[in-house]
Write a structure and sequence with these properties.
The complex is a heterodimer of chains A (452) and B (387).
Chain A: E1 3-8, E2 25-26, E3 33-36, E4 46-48, E5 55-56, E6 61-65, E7 72-74, E8 79-86, E9 92-99, H1 118-127, E10 134-137, E11 141-142, E12 151-155, H2 166-169, H3 174-185, E13 192-197, E14 210-216, H4 224-231, E15 240-243, H5 245-257, E16 263-269, E17 277-282, H6 288-294, E18 301-305, E19 312-314, E20 326-331, E21 337-338, H7 358-361, H8 384-387, H9 395-403, H10 407-413, H11 424-429, H12 436-450
Parallel strand pairs in A: 1-14, 2-17, 12-13, 12-15, 13-14, 16-20
Antiparallel strand pairs in A: 3-9, 4-6, 5-8, 6-7, 8-9, 10-11, 10-15, 16-17, 18-19, 18-20
Chain B: H1 2-12, H2 25-35, E1 36-37, H3 54-84, H4 90-123, H5 130-140, H6 148-163, H7 176-187, H8 189-192, H9 213-218, H10 227-232, H11 244-257, H12 262-282, H13 286-289, H14 292-297, H15 301-308, H16 319-339, H17 347-386
The chains are: A alpha/beta (452), B mainly alpha (387).
Chain lengths: 452, 387
């Protein structure tokens, strides 16, 4: 493996939380209901291609993007569309599909794909429902097929709390992963950048046709924004594409078989889970069977699609998100704590601040819950965000620029280089209980609407 | 605990949403959250949160202030008794000091918190904890014999003009506690400077003189105290600023807990030392040839740089900016001391001056980052054109 760059950082923090998934892969548990949530594709307005009661095959288009009708979003399974759930203003919340016993799938011709040119390949990916796997920076939204990206990044490093390990969950897919990389290489002028952990044990090191880089350090070292800033910093008007590791394998499987692959391997973890393990399922599957299988320690829990810092809130009867490989379950924390403001009291609560002995006393890991541990206040303390923010950006100044919606300032301070996820740790550690991710998300929305 | 919780919930009922006293909810919430960390859970963003909150941060500052305050109370009595030549015990001195200082603390808290609660109800936000620190700082930096009504008016001025007029906690430009002192300093100069105000009862009892060291130096006099006494703090001065030793203990608490910026404190000491050494080399008058090491332990410098300059809201906010800000506070403090005999203590004005310039310092530090980014954009578009 030839390494083009080593990214090392000290600024950040690993949150040592109990309940990391054991390396056991359960393939037998399966769900019968599935759902697609248009909200998983930030900034996409869906136009339906099916109605309730329709029979669909795996790979049948369910809806398309209003902005670009060629981009199709397809069903992960074959079965019946049972419900189209709508929210306020008839916004489509969910399209539910009941899986049938026998699985049929839509097939595309992928023969001699290596000989196709870039535009033909893009059209194939859009038609077959594979395009949503490709994200773009800035903003972290779905890529626009009109663009030619400066680079494509695939990152196999995860540092977020209780994170899934890609070298384990993709251990059987080395061939597909390589094929996926070959496919992506056709879409871009320079080889794909592949991020691997400093002590990577899997096959990612031996993947060919990529530019390897190494990442080392505490969370958020595994976040792509940091890698991009270090390797190919985004300038105004430039685009970079990113693809999640399992979706690279999905692309590879598609290009070799012609059938849309919706494989999702998930880690169900968290300190409210009895036996956290990995499961293999499909995109959008119901969560209940897996949650029942791992067992919950208590009833009053929060189910999170994604990691504890950045995931979206779900519940027991909800469905797996489109992109996450991790489902976290932690206890709700709606209880009172007497005199909790006393420094060095309640050392069982994870804290990065030195006003608590928590990190000294709980070396084996923490039990966490969803208590806010205080109330929202004005921004007073300074310097705490910088300690855990490894990018060359002034986080508090950027957040303030987003609050006052000053587009010019947001640009100058680096809004193009971040996504809300980068501020997960800021959310967590902030003394004033600031909702940094929400503020950045709104800022990005503003940028999309005003600048595009 | 359950019983207390239930009775509190009952008590809070009329303040609930849509109830009769909904408007006054911030006031009752302030008391409730003082007893219990509320049961709020995360609604958006990260699903778990740190144990630290603003209350804990502010209480840590108060704990750091306590050593200096307790010594200040004792020193008030000590200065009084050694000058009147009465025999006294530690307890006597402490009681004399408490009798003078506790009323000042009560006045400061009552006046300040009343205004804060009023604004919280008026603006419909929760009461911020910042005043818990400000309210304790104000009496700690006043001369001991200042009338209580002056403490009250200075406090009201500071909270109204320095803080709420700018939008409340987190928005102020000047440090509120120092603004209170500056207000008193310019409004009631006879109670705030001279040689009759620094020791308890100096105005009433003829036997007491009590000048501050810097005051007598500015007047061209000699210093009769050893450096050890200055360090320990058994000298006349504002209530709690005399003891560098106990201020250093507070500084240690602030730095170890990460609540106070060690960069500002270190920068300040460096700045003052450099300036002091330069003046020592020059040595044109008594204050200039006053050893730079003595400059660091005498007067309010230590107290100011540890507890006032580190106020995160009015200080510089960037890492680099904190170094510059701290350094300049030190430099200006010694410069004002030496050059301006009307203000023998320079730290108050030095910090207020730098409070005003802190946003400018930050502006230039952040601009460095912006310039770097824009330069990268420019070269990128250049490459695009040539390619």
């Amino acid at each position: 493996m030839e390494v083009i760059k080593k990214i090392r950082t000290r600024r950040g923090a690993n949150l040592n939380i109990k309940g990391k998934a054991e390396k056991i892969l359960n393939k037998s548990t399966s769900a019968t209901t599935f759902a697609l949530r248009p909200d998983d594709f930030f900034g996409t307005t869906p136009k339906l291609l099916c109605k309730e009661g329709d029979q669909v095959k795996a790979g049948t288009p369910i809806f398309f993007s209003k902005k670009n009708p060629d981009i199709k979003f397809v069903s992960p399974v074959s079965g019946t569309v049972t419900a189209i759930e709508r929210g306020p203003k008839r916004k489509i919340e969910r399209i539910c599909i009941e899986a049938s016993k026998t699985q049929k799938s839509n097939s595309h011709t992928v023969k001699d794909w290596e000989k196709k040119d870039r535009e033909q390949l893009k059209a194939l990916l859009m038609e077959s429902g594979n395009w949503p796997f490709i994200h773009q920076r800035p903003y972290g939204i779905m890529a626009d097929p009109q663009d030619t990206p400066k680079a494509i990044f695939v990152n196999t490093v995860k540092t977020s709390p209780l994170s899934e390990e890609f070298h384990y969950l993709l251990k059987d897919d080395s061939k597909e992963f390589q094929l996926g990389i070959d496919l992506l290489n056709k879409l871009v002028d320079q080889p794909v950048f592949l991020g691997v952990d400093a002590d990577e044990v899997g096959y990612f090191k031996t993947i060919e046709g990529v530019q390897h880089y190494i990442v080392q350090g505490p969370h958020p070292a595994g976040n792509l924004s940091l890698h991009i800033q270090n390797i190919a910093p985004l300038n105004m008007g430039e685009r970079i594409w990113t693809v999640n590791p399992e979706d690279v394998a999905n692309l590879g499987r598609f290009i070799s078989t012609g059938i849309f692959s919706a494989q999702r391997t998930i880690a169900v973890s968290g300190n409210a889970v009895d036996h956290p393990i990995y499961f293999r399922t499909l995109i959008g599957s119901a969560l209940a069977p897996f949650l029942e299988k791992v067992g919950l320690k208590q009833d009053h829990v929060r189910v999170i699609n994604g990691d504890i810092l950045t995931g979206s809130q779900a519940h027991f009867s909800d469905y797996l998100g489109y992109f996450n490989n991790l489902v976290s379950v932690i206890p709700e924390g709606n209880n009172y704590r007497m005199f909790g403001w006393l420094p060095f009291k309640d050392n069982n609560i994870l804290s990065l601040s030195n006003t608590s002995f928590s990190r000294l006393f709980n070396r084996k890991g923490f039990e966490v819950d969803t208590n806010l541990n205080g109330e929202e206040r004005a921004l007073v303390v300074t310097g705490e965000m910088e300690k855990i923010f490894p990018m060359e950006i002034y986080p508090m100044q950027l957040i303030k620029a987003c609050m006052i919606e000053d587009i010019e300032k947001m640009e100058a301070l680096g809004i193009y280089e971040v996504v809300p996820e980068d501020f997960g740790l800021v959310d967590y550690s902030n003394t004033s209980k600031l909702e940094a991710q929400e503020i950045i998300r709104k800022g990005i929305e503003l940028m999309i609407n005003e600048v595009g | 605990m359950n019983f207390l919780r239930k009775s509190l919930d009952n008590l809070k009922k009329p303040f609930g949403k849509g109830q009769k006293f909904e408007k006054f909810a911030p006031a009752i919430n302030a008391f409730d959250t003082f007893l219990f960390v509320p049961n709020h859970t995360t609604k958006k963003g990260a699903h778990i949160r740190d144990a630290v909150d603003l209350k804990r941060t502010m209480v840590t500052v108060i704990i750091a202030l306590l050593p200096a305050l307790i010594y200040g109370i004792y020193n008030t009595g000590y200065q009084y008794y050694i000058q009147t030549n009465e025999p006294f015990t530690f307890l006597d001195a402490f009681i004399h000091g408490s009798w003078k200082i506790v009323p000042m603390i009560i006045v400061s808290y009552v006046v300040g918190l009343t205004i804060e609660f009023g604004f919280a109800v008026y603006r419909g936000h929760e009461v911020n904890e910042g005043y818990l620190v400000t309210g304790l700082l104000i009496p700690m930096i006043m001369p001991v014999d200042i009338p209580l009504w002056m403490v009250g008016i200075s406090t009201a001025f500071a909270v109204l003009v320095a803080k709420e007029a700018f939008g409340g906690t987190g928005m102020n430009i000047l440090n509120p506690a120092l603004t209170a002192r500056a207000f008193a300093f310019f409004a009631y100069p006879t109670y705030m400077s001279g040689n009759k105000v620094w020791v308890s009862e100096a105005g009433n009892v003829d036997a007491i003189s009590g000048e501050t060291i810097l005051g007598s130096l500015a007047a061209g006099g000699d210093v009769n105290y050893s450096m050890m006494e200055m360090f320990q703090g058994s000298i006349p001065g504002s209530i709690a600023e005399t003891s560098t030793l106990w201020v250093a203990v507070g500084a240690l608490i602030l730095i170890l807990t990460g609540v106070g910026s060690w960069r500002i404190i270190t920068g300040g000491i460096l700045g003052a030392a450099v300036m002091g050494v330069l003046f020592n080399l020059w040595g044109a008058n008594e204050l200039m040839s006053f050893s730079w090491m003595n400059h660091l332990v005498v007067g309010g410098f230590a107290f100011g740089i540890v507890f006032m300059a580190t106020d995160p809201v009015s200080a510089a906010q960037t890492t680099k900016g904190k170094w510059i800000y701290g350094f300049l506070v030190g430099v200006f403090c010694i410069m004002i001391r030496v050059f301006n005999p009307a203000y023998p203590e320079g730290v108050m004005l030095a910090i207020l001056l730098m409070n005003v310039f802190a946003p400018t310092i930050d502006h230039y530090v952040v601009n460095g980052n912006i310039k770097k980014r824009k330069k990268r954009w420019a070269t990128a578009s250049q490459e695009l054109k040539t390619a």
